[in-house]
Design goal:
195 residues; 2 domains; 10 helices; disordered C terminus
C-alpha cells in the first residue's frame, strides 16, 4: 500500500505543478491542451462527480462558500482524483513535452509511464476490491523498455509485460526515484531470487 501511496502522491504533485506552471491554476480546464477532447470531456465529467457543495471534503465546501467558480484550481481538483483519473489526465496531455517532463522526473520514457499507469491503476483497483492479482495476466501489456535504467535491467529481464511482476518492478523503481531513502527496491525480489 505504501508503494501505491508514494506513486499517487508523486503523480498528483507532478501533474499539478507542471500544469499550473505552464497554464496557470485554472488552465487545466482548457480542452485545447489535451490530445482528445472527448477524453477530456469524459474526465471532466468524472471530476464533476467529485465536486459540489455536498462533497465530504471540507476544503471543497470551503472553496464553494468563498468563490463562485464552478471549478477549483488544479491543486484542489487533483486532490480529489483517484490515481486512475490522474493518469488519464496525464495520458491525454496534448503537449508531449509536458508528458516527457513528468516522466523524466522518475527517469522513464513518457510512453512507458503512460503504459505503466494504466496497468498500475487496473491492478491497484483489483487489489482494493480483493480480486486475485498475483500471477494474473491482464489484457493490458506494458511497453517494452528498450534501454532500461541500470536499476531496472536485471528485474525486468524475465518480466512478462502483461503480468504483475512488470508493474511491481516499475512501481518500486518509481518509488526509489521519488524517495531514495526507501528500501522498496531492494526488498522486492524476482522469481529467480527464490530458487
Amino acid at each position: 500500500m505504501r508503494l501505491a501511496h508514494s506513486i499517487e502522491v508523486w503523480l498528483r504533485a507532478a501533474l499539478t505543478n507542471r500544469l499550473a506552471e505552464k497554464y496557470g491554476p485554472m488552465g487545466y480546464l482548457n480542452p485545447k491542451i489535451y490530445g482528445h477532447e472527448d477524453a477530456f470531456r469524459r474526465d471532466l465529467s468524472k471530476l464533476n462527480e467529485l465536486l459540489g457543495d455536498d462533497s465530504p471534503e471540507r476544503f471543497v465546501s470551503a472553496f464553494y462558500n468563498k468563490y463562485d467558480n464552478k471549478y477549483p484550481p488544479i491543486w484542489m481538483s487533483a486532490e480529489l482524483m483517484s490515481v486512475g483519473l490522474i493518469s488519464k489526465w496525464y495520458d491525454n496531455l496534448g503537449e508531449t513535452s509536458l508528458r516527457k517532463a513528468i516522466a523524466a522526473e522518475v527517469g522513464l520514457h513518457h510512453q512507458v509511464l503512460s503504459s505503466f499507469l494504466r496497468m498500475f491503476s487496473v491492478l491497484r483497483n483489483g487489489a482494493a476490491h480483493h480480486a486475485r492479482i498475483w500471477n494474473r495476466q491482464t489484457a493490458l501489456r506494458g511497453v517494452t523498455i528498450r534501454k532500461p535504467p541500470a536499476l531496472l535491467e536485471s528485474p525486468l529481464l524475465e518480466a512478462d509485460p502483461s503480468r504483475i511482476q512488470y508493474v511491481l518492478v516499475i512501481a518500486a523503481y518509481i518509488v526509489q526515484q521519488v524517495d531514495p531513502t526507501t528500501r522498496t527496491v531492494t526488498s522486492l525480489k524476482g522469481p529467480s531470487a527464490h530458487s
